[in-house]
Amino acid sequence: MPTLTDALSAERFDTYLNWAGGDQALAERLYTYNVQLSAALYGPLHMQEVALRNMTDKVLIQRHGLNWFDNPAVLTTGYQAGCIAKARQTLQQAGKAVTRSQIIAELNFGFWSSLFGRQAHHLWQTLRPIFQAKGVQRGTIAQELRELRLLRNRIAHYEPIIALPLAQRYASITTVTGWLSPSAAAWVANYSTWPALYPAVPILVPDPASGALVVAPAAIPFLPA
Description:
Blueprint: H1 4-8, H2 10-19, H3 24-64, H4 78-93, H5 100-106, H6 109-114, H7 124-127, H8 138-156, H9 166-180, H10 182-191, H11 194-197, E1 204-206, E2 213-215
Antiparallel strand pairs: 1-2
Organism: Sphingopyxis flava
Protein name: Abi-like protein
């Protein structure tokens, strides 16, 4: 009978097996926990991304008009222009109408994050008011979004996330969402399953002898049976 390792591939499962010190059953529990935590983060990340997209679009419309994404003075990098072109192409290939709202919906988190990077500094004075936080800096926003984008991508590609500083990442999600929309932050607080799943202890810690990451004994009771 095929095992879970066969289904996942040995190479992918070896990461968990190494963390579990070769214990197959513990490695499977770790893998399952990684899946559960990834699922628990999806909703909060979704809300944060949607809030960022819609608030950003709103202020750019006010400053540059409905089709701000076609203005070369707004989108100044090849990456950003490429995202717009790709969105149009994707819609055309899917047989969908290439409307403004469809283009906006098709743009990924990487695109929206890029509007806060160093190369988009010219947009900051326009975008700054969407964040309801006194004294927040563009660089802070850019760094927060960069880390959340990397987390989102790892989840989307079914990669391990339990070695990341997840308490810090979740705090970042809720903080940025709160800056964008208190209502969106309240939704996350009401419906997120994360607090019930994630322990107030690290899941992985360095082994004292080798320095390699291993399962923290204090985290084992929180792992699914």
